[in-house]
Amino acid sequence: MNENVNKKKAECKPKERIVRAAVKLFAHQGFDGTGLRTLASTADVNLAMINYFFGSKKALLKKILDTFFSGYLAIAREELAGDDDLQTKLGRFISSSVIYFETHRDYLLVTITELPHDDPEIIEHKAAWGRQMMEIIDREICRPLSTETGSRVSPTVIGPLLTSMMASRFLFAPIIERVHPPGAEAIKGEDYADIISKFFLKGIAAFEADARGLPE
């Protein structure tokens, strides 16, 4: 077993090992709670190598944020584009995002939970990505919604709301697993995406209509 682990570490380049170790440690111990010596030991590198590749722990955090945000933004651009109706596009976006969050759970945890509000550099770094996402959400969600309903909702409301709804499954997973009713079947990813999509577009009334067999 140890031989296999050591073999995998040897096959993985030092820079990649550092990023992988940082993602895991930052997600579970926090950015401030992770020391460089612990990071170096986990990644099986020396301290000098971390400085060589990244220069600082903060630069490493930025690398993690960039990886997560670039993937999330690519999903938004692809799934929300096109001439399909808003519900179809939103369903695609939510489904792909839920899968992305599932496969990049630690990246998600670092991105969502590491919010150093006293660090202008990190705030601006996140804001730069956020502005790009807000442009897409405004164009592909807010404007069509405004046309359909006559009400204008800011993308700075829609964006965080939608992301939080999708991310909650993963942020609260350790707790939910302990309070889940015994014998209850776990919700599948595609079902979770459908629930979020319906809640977001139609509210709880859509579920009441389903239960009564009424049209939504």
First-to-last CA distance: 55 Å
Number of strands: 0
Number of domains: 2
Mean pLDDT: 85
Q: Please indicate the percent range of residues in DSSP E strands (runs of 2 or more).
A: under 5%
Largest sheet, in brief, is: none
**Helical element count?**
12
Description:
The protein is an all-alpha fold and 216 residues long. It has two domains: 55 residues, Homeodomain-like (Arc Repressor Mutant, subunit A); 152 residues, Tetracycline Repressor, domain 2 (Orthogonal Bundle), CATH 1.10.357. Helices cover 78% and strands 0% of the residues. It contains twelve helices and no strands. Helix 2 packs across helix 5 and helix 8 packs across helix 9. The longest helix is centred in the middle third of the chain and has 30 residues. It is globular, with a radius of gyration of 20 Å. 19% of the residues are buried. The mean pLDDT is 85.
